[in-house]
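Re: beginner question about structure tokens

> Can someone show what the tokenized structure looks like for a real chain? I only ever see the sequence side.

Sure, here's an example I had lying around. Input first:
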Amino acid sequence: MPMNDAPPTFSNYQEAIHAFLQERLHAKLEKLKADEDGKRTELIAQHQPAAWLDDAARRVQQIQAVTHSLKPIHPDARGTNLYVEPRTQPPLTELGSHALGEHFVGDVVGNAAALDVYKLLKLEVNGRSLLTALLAQDADALSALHTDPAQTQALRDAFVSLTQPRAEGPSSHTLAKQLYWLTDTDACDDSHYTLLAPLYATSLAHAVHAQVQEDRFGEANKAARQARRERKVHDGVFHDYPGLAVQNMGGTKPQNISQLNSERRGVNYLLSSLPPQWKVSAVRLPVHATSVFDRLFIARPEVRRTVRALRVFLESAPDANLATRDRREELLDALVDELVSLAAELQQILPPGWSRDDERFKELAYEEALWLDPLRAEIPEEAQFAHDWQYMNWPAAIGKAFAGWLNAQLRDKLPVGDAEAREWKKVLLTDEDGFKQQLRELRNKLDAPHYIPIRKTHAELVALREENP
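And the corresponding structure tokens:
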């Protein structure tokens, strides 16, 4: 989300300077009263290019252009700030200011009353700032300062001094951070340390802020976030920054820290650097289980919450109307989504053939092995498994198991029976965006028939296998 409107474009630096001064003059004249003609004349004279640039060349000593600043470390610290163009830094594999290359925004620190000088030097022509052009002795930039070559050079030297350290040599401060860095092998030898004074990489922080703002509030991410919330397919990328923190610098006067900090209204983003926390895997395995419905499915927190909500809803004896049907379907869809997620997780984390190779899973029902271990069908010696998988009778058994399980969850307080079981089974097997979509993708991968029977049982599957050995 951009902080400012797009800057105007100019054909040359003289035009850019003239527009800049006229804008500032207009803003000041608007604040004058009708009877302040003397003040009006004075302001007009002050904003003539020669007069204003000469005054700016004197005031530029009150500020300093920086890429690495001390002020964000502590607002009252006094010491060395640095202006180091990222392209001149050695390349590293780690992220740092060097990654900005040619495309970076310089910052400025010092007397906030003189920041208008830096705004002048930030004026751009063809994507190149006035300061950058003056550093490169650009002829167009030089000619925009003055008609006299000597005066032009004096103004140029004053303005580019903005990028030079203001002190005679490097210095730190009692409010600044310092640390001893071991540079050799003997930690007990004081001579093997170098004293470092870390500075805040303000240009890098500004680039990070711009990227995070776009990733959080840009139109592209808004569309991706909406699709994620509605569980819809989306071609774009969704950006998220877990654990993001905001550090506000400067309080009510962010300009006292730096110009860029003022443009960000004091907001500086801190990416999470917390150590990883061990979490027990949310995916439980069907160890010594005859069915994943017995323990694994109901162990999922969302499943427990949804079953509880469905039970409470049905116990309230809601009216037989559209709202009741929609609410019931919403809760059933949530259960189907969890079941599809459980299958996908087991299919992803376990190797093909796990249902036959691992003794812990040998008790699992054959139909559920077909459902949860589909890539076992690609193992050469599993021809029978592949045949049974492609025959596509087993989804009906999964639907029946799901229906029986859900009835068992509701039966204590609700008179559910065969009619309800048939409805639960139908909901699962006809779910276009969940169960059927997952099977459709697997059928395409394993070249299986696309028709899914919903009335075949395990007994029929066994009988068919005996008839066609």
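Each token stands for a local structural state, so reading them left to right follows the chain. The CA atoms of residues 225 and 238 lie 6 Å apart.
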